[in-house]
Write a structure and sequence with these properties.
- Helices cover 36% and strands 14% of the residues.
- By secondary structure, it is an alpha/beta fold.
- The chain has a five-stranded mixed beta sheet with strand order 2-1-3-13-4. It has a four-stranded mixed beta sheet with strand order 6-10-5-11.
Length: 512
């Protein structure tokens, strides 16, 4: 079994130290959300590398929109769809029907469409709820692409290690977006406040170090001195200590302790108590708004001037946040970067199980062109040139649309999407260096099969929503934290947690 682990780690390392071999430009864009819109459409096309005769195969493509607070505009989505279909008609025998849904509504709407058999190509991620990668495989909702994808332009668009790092039970179900395929987290501060107060961010080594700055932000009258973005942050900020291999904040009650290489009950650790106590203390001092506890902050709150500090997922070009949030921010690393079992699945696509083989092949053809053709990748990411974006004199992208607006990280490969005008032209190379500089987790390659304890697992996720999320967002008085953690653990145990923990330990011990 040790050989199995060594191979998995080697593959993950290979994934983290190689970049795609695709054609075209480069990179990225932003993230955020709220409302929703969809679209259906039209047009004609032809076959794989050369045009084909006969009817084009229609595939329904569903994606999330993170960048527009009011959601995408259906008429503009239709325009983008038609432009894509016109561009690809002489290249591949595929026609797309594009559905673009605001990220705030994406999980519910996409899940309904998935259950109704209305999707062929679905954007997803390891961190998504309900339709995340760890949900779709056990539900048999995804198409096994293993035999169809070999020797295609899509497969050849990236290093083999990338595909190996995303496999489930040795099978290819997901098409990863080549981006920052390792995981690490930063502290993010609004630069206007850093300059106003003269904050020395170089002195910040831990999250607790920003408390004096939070006090100044509160005195200034800011509503969100520490903005959690309605996110349970223990899972993210303690990855140097633990590998939370479920990649799911609602299941962060189990992890591998990196020091001992053993599966442990996280809720009972000193680190968990430390973090929850700090959050409770900050909430009592007015540094955390109850809006984060009640999940009433929006995904566009970060685009406002109402906050001082928040968190950021570390990427090769962190300056991307400036355009994403419409203001300058500064970053301080809070964790190291790690390659682990789900880090390459932070943004990906899957072909749905309801698709026919013909539709599955069409999805592969479309994704192969998307990952190797810069013009198509830019259109799919940024929209219509002259309406949604422009190329400047250096050939970089300026986005200016409130109707259609996406980012590289949730669209296509960093090697083909053209960089934004505030990003370096060599962004693809920076991604390669970034991924290659990560640590490899001792649990890299391990995937937990929750089938034997699925009912208990779901029950414990519900307990997290009742206790864990509130604890990690400062929702309980500081004096009650220890008692609430005990209540939390008792509720987990009543939901079957000990059975889950034993199953995790048995599977992990067998794997390693």
């Amino acid at each position: 079994m040790k050989f199995k682990k060594l191979m998995a780690v080697a593959l993950t390392t290979a994934m983290a130290t190689t970049m795609l071999a695709g054609c075209g430009g480069n990179t990225d864009a932003g993230s955020n959300n709220t409302s929703s819109e969809q679209n259906t459409a039209s047009s004609e096309q032809s076959n794989t590398s050369t045009p084909a005769s006969g009817d084009a195969v229609t595939i329904n493509v569903t994606r999330a929109c993170f960048n527009l607070g009011g959601g995408p505009d259906s008429a503009q989505v239709q325009k983008v769809q038609d432009a894509i279909n016109e561009y690809i008609k002489d290249k591949i025998n595929v026609q797309i029907v594009l559905t673009d849904i605001s990220s705030g509504e994406y999980t519910d709407k996409a899940n309904m469409s998935l259950n109704a058999g209305e999707i062929n190509l679905l954007w997803t991620a390891s961190w998504e709820s309900t339709i995340g990668t760890n949900d779709l495989v056990p539900q048999n909702s995804v198409y096994d692409l293993t035999d169809l994808i070999k020797d295609t332009p899509l497969y050849n668009s990236m290093a083999e290690g990338q595909w190996e790092a995303t496999k489930y039970d040795g099978k290819i179900y997901f098409i990863p977006v080549y981006k920052d395929n390792v995981e690490g987290y930063d502290l993010m501060a609004r630069k206007a406040l850093v300059d106003e107060f003269g904050w020395d961010l170089s002195s910040v080594k831990t999250l607790a170090d920003i408390e004096p700055m939070l006090a100044q932000a509160k005195e200034k009258g800011l509503k969100y001195p520490w903005l959690t973005q309605k996110t349970a942050m223990f899972y993210r900020l303690y990855i140097d200590k633990f590998d939370f291999f479920t990649a799911d904040a609602t299941a962060n009650w189990v992890a591998v302790d990196r020091n001992t290489n053993e599966v442990i009950d996280v809720v009972l650790t000193d680190e968990y108590k430390e973090f929850c106590t700090l959050m409770a203390d900050w909430a009592e001092k007015g540094y955390i708004s109850e809006d984060d506890v009640t999940k009433t902050t929006t995904d566009t709150t970060t685009q406002s001037q109402d906050w001082a500090f928040s968190w950021w997922t570390d990427i090769p070009v962190n300056a991307e946040a400036n355009s994403r949030y419409g203001q300058d921010v500064e970053m301080v690393p809070l964790t190291s970067r790690w390659a682990h079992s789900t880090s390459a699945l932070g943004s990906c696509y899957c072909v749905t199980a309801n698709s026919t083989e013909e539709q599955a092949k069409a999805c592969i053809d479309f994704m192969g062109l998307l990952y190797t053709d810069s013009k198509l990748a830019d259109m799919y990411t940024f929209g219509i040139e002259g309406e949604d974006f422009e190329y400047n004199a250096e050939g970089l992208v300026t986005q200016h649309s409130d109707k259609y607006n996406h980012s590289m990280w949730e669209s296509a490969s960093a090697t083909v999407v053209t960089p934004l005008d505030n990003e370096p032209a060599n962004k693809a190379e920076l991604y390669d260096a970034f991924n290659g500089g990560a640590n490899t987790s001792c649990a890299a390659g391990f995937r937990f099969d929750k089938t034997p304890v699925e009912a208990e697992f779901t029950a414990c996720q519900n307990v997290f929503n009742e206790y864990g999320f509130i604890l990690e967002n400062g929702g309980y008085p500081k004096a009650d934290v220890e008692a609430k953690i005990a209540e939390y653990q008792a509720a987990l145990d009543a939901a079957g947690y000990q059975k889950i923990l034993a199953e995790f330990q048995n599977q992990y011990n067998a794997w390693k």
